[in-house]
Design brief:
It is a single chain. The protein is α/β, with parallel strands linked by helices and 417 residues long. Helix content is 30%, strand content 17%. It contains 13 helices and 19 strands. The chain has helices at 22-30, 49-54, 79-82, 101-109, 131-150, 177-188, 201-208, 219-222, 236-250, 273-277, 324-341, 357-362, 376-385, and strands at residues 3-7, 33-38, 58-60, 70-75, 90-94, 113-116, 158-160, 163-165, 169-173, 192-196, 212-213, 255-258, 284-287, 304-306, 312-314, 343-344, 349-350, 363-366, 369-370. The strands form 4 sheets. Strands 3-2-1-4-5-6-18-19 form an 8-stranded mixed sheet, with helices on both faces. It has a 7-stranded mixed sheet with strand order 11-10-9-12-13-15-14, with helices on one face. α1 (22-30) packs parallel to α11, α5 runs parallel beside α6 and α5 runs antiparallel to α11. The longest helix has 20 residues, at 131-150. The chain is globular and about 65 Å long. The structure holds nicotinamide-adenine-dinucleotide.
Amino acid sequence: MGQTVFIPRELDANEPRVAASPDTVKRLAGLGFDVIIESGAGTASRIPDEEFAKAGAVIGKAGDVAKADVVLKVRRPDETELKAYRLGTAVIAIMDPYGNDAAVDALARAGVAAFSMEFMPRITRAQSMDVLSSQANLAGYQAVIDAAAEYDRALPMMMTAAGTVPAAKAFVMGVGVAGLQAIATARRLGAVVTATDVRPAAKEQVASLGAKFLAVEDEEFKAAETAGGYAKEMSKEYQAKQATLTAEHIAKQDIVITTALIPGRPAPKLVSAAMVASMKPGSVIVDLAVERGGNVEGAVPGQVVTTANGVKIVGHLNVPGRVAASASLLYARNLFAFLETLVDKTAKTLAINRDDELVKATMLTDGGQIVHPAFAGKQAVMIASAEPAKPAAAKNPALPKKAAAPKSPGNKSKGIA
Ligand code: NAD
């Protein structure tokens, strides 16, 4: 049959990752797909075209997207890219839809079946597809490496004939996937590590990694974890208590790594300018939440800022992309694991079951409509003011013609994933 999977080169200058690896190309071929990789797609992840070719891919050009039944990407395609996509193409990427209504609308108007990998439910069956975990894990590691690189002292305690170097004190704020890996990495480098979170479950995990837990453990704390395992936005009162508790602690730290996020909300502000000012010269803060508004006052996306008192605030963008060669391999496997569930293995063809819970959770647009419940209402308004969409039929979707969508803000808003 020969259905085609296309993997483009990412257009965002800040995106070195790629959505396939030689390993997943082989696996895709095994599922019966023809695989086309845009020339240069893997270069920034240290995968040359030849490696993809050896694995069985055809090396192509951007325009080959027009042949694709499936497009695997890292970031959401923008309106210009979408013009070349065929109606009905399945597009699997980190779609970053929150706050990007116009871009989601553009996906619907392009008539593609867009899947948002970051909406994958955190259930056992989908663990191998969890891009948030695979990428946040590397971001947590890299945050400590970046902190160590900026920190102009040694991290481990060293007892030498010439005297003793004290161990660095590191404080990790937010202990989800990234925070746990940051704790483990900082411990391996010899730092004395403490950590905080608003979810009670984090307490034991922190202790199991040999770090000390510090948090305001009141009634609100006991109820801070949602059924999905994420944090809730805490009350002003809780935040004030948390700030009082952490202020004194932060003043004594050499390294602070912040990773706190709340799904669909701006990142909580955890470190104030006054706390930064209380730290010693040469201290380093890494704000992994900088792309979601930041946990640290004074953090600037994409910059390393040095404050008047000599504290460095690191606000690197796309931290998993700083370890792109590792991040791409894991990301590619996440995408493959999901795509495999969308394939009829006997017929060797794409067969998207819209009743499957993974599809329901991740599908953003389908048949010209925004179908995800978190965004569907918004589109109805937009369509009404522009062009009426025809309802999608199960077998032969009646897709609306591609129309000029409101200008997309592009892929500028990113999470740590
Ligand atoms: P996340 O990226 O949404 O947030 C990072 C951390 O910030 C979280 O631990 C959160 O509690 C914390 N946080 C939020 N507000 C805070 C505040 N005001 N102060 C301090 N900390 C704050 O989280 P994540 O890494 O996606 O992990 C969320 C949960 O999901 C964790 O319990 C994790 O173990 C779990 N998880 C489960 C699976 C699975 O079952 N397959 C996979 C990955 C993660």
